[in-house]
Amino acid sequence: MDIVDGNLYAAMRIILPEHRAEMRRMEQLSKARTKPILSQESLAEMTYTITEAIQDERSVRIELFATFENEIIEGSPTILNGKLQVVTSDGIKHTLSPDRIVSVSII
Questions:
Q1: pTM flag (> 0.90)
Q2: 85 and 45: one domain?
Q3: Across all residues in the chain, what is the average pLDDT?
Q4: Which domain holds residue 94?
Q5: What's the number of domains the chain is made of?
Q6: Which of 25, 33, 40, 48 is 20 to 30 A distant from 17 in Cα terms?
């Protein structure tokens, strides 16, 4: 980090532990991402892919948005009480929020 980056703490020779923690927090916040805005066409494609996978009983790879790094879940999709669930090969059930889904592909 450098003072040019807008970080005044880095310009000091002696950094107090409280300041070091604040520096790390500020650095992490600067790495935070915003969720991409998906077009209606891509949402329709993902819905079709999930529907096709459920009907054909095939596995899917679903990428979920997260603030710092996207998560990937692979498994068999099902609809339970109007919510999308993915059962992984370990038998773990993940209930997914449609707002977090970035991409879907059939494995």
A1: no
A2: yes
A3: 86
A4: 40-106
A5: 2
A6: 33
Contact between 101 and 95 under an 8 Å Cβ cutoff? The reply is no
Domain co-membership, 44 together with 17: no
Q: Which residue has the higher pLDDT, 2 or 15?
A: 15
* Alpha carbons 42 and 105: distance in angstroms, whole number: 12
Q: Is the dihedral of CA 37, 87, 54, 74 positive or negative?
A: positive
Q: What angle do CA 21, 22, 26 make, to 5 degrees?
A: 120
Per the structure block, which two tokens stand in for 102?
């970035």
Segment 54-83 shows an average pLDDT of 93
Query: What tokens were used for 86?
Result: 């993915």
The answer to whether the beta carbons of residues 60 and 106 sit under 8 Å apart is yes
Residues 89 and 50 placed together within one structural domain of the fold? yes
In this predicted model, what pLDDT tens digit does every residue of 16-47 receive, in sequence order?
Answer: 788 888 888 888 888 778 888 999 999 999 99
